Amino acid sequence: MSDIGMNDLKAGTKVEYEGNPFNVISNQFVKPGKGQAFNRVRIKNLRNGKVIEVTFKSDEKIKIADVEERSMRFTYKDTDSAEFMDDETFDQVSIPLEIIGDDQQWLKEDIVYEVVFYEGNALTIQPPTFMNLKISETHDAVRGDTATGGRITKEAKLETGAIVQVPIFIDQDETVKIDTRTGEYVSRAN
Amino acid sequence: MSQGLTKISSKEIVKKRADFLQNIRSFFSLKGVLEVDTPVLLSFPPNDANIEIMSVETKLQKRYLTSSCEYLMKRLLASGSGDIFQLCHVYRDNEIGRLHSPFFTMLEWYRTDLCLESLIQEVLELIQFLGISGEIERGSYQTRFLKATGLDPLNTNRTSLIQKLEGKIYQPENLEFDELIDAVFVTFVEPTFQKGVQIIDTFLPHQAALAKIRDFEALRFEIYIDGVEVANGYEELNDPHEIQSRFDSWNQKREKPLEVDPRFLNSLEDLPAVSGVAVGVDRLLFLKEKAETLSSILLFDFHSC
Question: In the predicted model, what is the mean pLDDT of residues B207-214?
Fold first, then answer.
């Protein structure tokens, strides 16, 4: 992959820094009076989501990371991997469950996920922001259910395995809309 | 990227800029300082250690775009012009960002027989005249650096500076000593200038640029307002030999040395005792209007013209 000059870095540029792929969040040009010019760059590690700030001399160059994003449909889960398919090319990709990590709780067959690849290997998967999921297990409202945001909620297990808080009037086998970024209940699914 | 005229309505900006420029001219008219307008195309490139110059191919000869109007203004001073000011367009390659544009409007003025301190006071007077204010704090580069970092820039070494920058700067061990000083400054010292009118009233000898050096201090000042650098002034060096040797030292860092205009060097013999300052006009307007970006108070930015 080619190199890129500091002033060409934009939010969204994927770069390689200390052997890891990063996404550029912001890039600020700083130059003291008659002094050396620098670029103060905020970058997010695509492996673990950690954001760091690094300052580079403005005439420095940095490697563009070989990062590719593809929309892929989840087909099935094996013991230690999940299988995805590209709808356009019919390419099949097997992604180890340890890479998917916590997002395993949002894996539902036939749903399309954004898969990020780094040097050809899957790095992360991104579920749709909102998903309609069926409640596989919950109990009737009881004393002691927690109050969140002014309403009383209870625990419910979704068909994908995620545990979420839902309002007490929601029953088992109902389908609910969930915000996968926070794991919060949004509404009943229509 | 902004398209066409920038965000604050174009009509508003036209009026605000016109009033602002008019006020600057009134200020100098009241002081009896004459306005000059020197050309922006130069036959020799300006030589400034950290400024990249743009050039222009013409059918006559190659020319360079001015990065500051100081050389020609100093030649006018040497020819006996007396106190002068200029509102000029200047060009610096590869400088772009929230507070930078590859071209900008610079206000530069020179006062004969004025010491650095009197010039600092005049800059503060102008800022107030233009309706910009803030609490004033001042100190030398050395004391401000020491206060913010615990390191004395005149008595430190590469190892301490590199240690200070570990994890903050990409490969600090590859930077020269001067660059390490600048890196520590932008990382630890500049962030302490976020509020009010901050004056750095003298600089380190190696940062003198074209200012005189006295008792290991460069007679150079800078003013920051709310974290934005707006003014850079000198008690002007007028020793041609000393200036030649500074140009030579900056040239050592360049792949190809820049040739200096001999007419400028020759004129220095006649340059009177003078202090001069350059002020970023767009940045002042940006501060006055509390704008989001420098581009938003320009009539057109780099991408829209």
Answer: 95
**Per-residue confidence band for B11, with pLDDT thresholds at 50, 70 and 90:** confident
- Kindly give the pairing relationship between strand B228-235 and strand B84-91: unpaired
* 3-class DSSP state of B18: helix
Average pLDDT over residues A7-13: 92
Token look-up 């100081």 returns: B70
Inter-axis angle of helices B177-184 and B158-165, nearest 10: 40
CATH classification (class only), B10-135+195-297: alpha beta
Closest CB to A7 among B94, B99, B222: B94
Question: Mean pLDDT score of chain B, rounded to an integer?
Answer: 94
Burial of residue B2, with CB atoms counted within 10 A of its CB: 0-12 exposed, 13-18 middle, 19 or more buried = middle
For B30, the 3-state DSSP assignment is helix
User: Residue ranges of the domains in chain B?
Assistant: 10-135+195-297, 142-192
Residue A64, phi then psi, degrees to nearest 5 = -75, 135
**Tens digit of each residue's pLDDT (9 = 90 or more) over B244-288:** 999 999 888 888 899 999 999 999 999 999 999 999 999 999 999
Position B55 scores a pLDDT of 95
The 3-state DSSP class for residue B200 equals strand
All domains in chain A, ordered by first residue: 3-64 (2.30.30.30), 67-126 (2.40.50.140), 131-188 (2.40.50.140)
Buried-exposed string B151-160: b where 16+ CB fall within 10 A, e elsewhere: bebeebeeeb
Q: Where are the alpha helices (DSSP H) in chain A?
A: 97-100
pLDDT of residue A151 exceeding 90, the answer is no
> How far is B87 from chain A, CA to nearest CA, in Å?
19
- Sheet containing strand B274-280, strands side by side: B34-35, B84-91, B103-112, B274-280, B228-235, B220-225, B197-200, B136-139
Mind giving me the DSSP string for B105-126? EEEEEEEET--HHHHHHHHHHH
Counting Cβ atoms within 10 Å, is residue B25 exposed (0-12), middle (13-18) or buried (19+)?
middle
CB-closest option in A27, A33, A55 to B229: A33
Average confidence (pLDDT) over B58-83: 96
Q: Which of B48, B94, B175 would best serve as a mutation to test chain A binding (most A beta carbons within 10 A)?
A: B94
Whole-model pTM over 0.90: no
Q: Output the average pLDDT for chain A.
A: 91
Euclidean distance between CA atoms A69 and B73, whole angstroms: 56
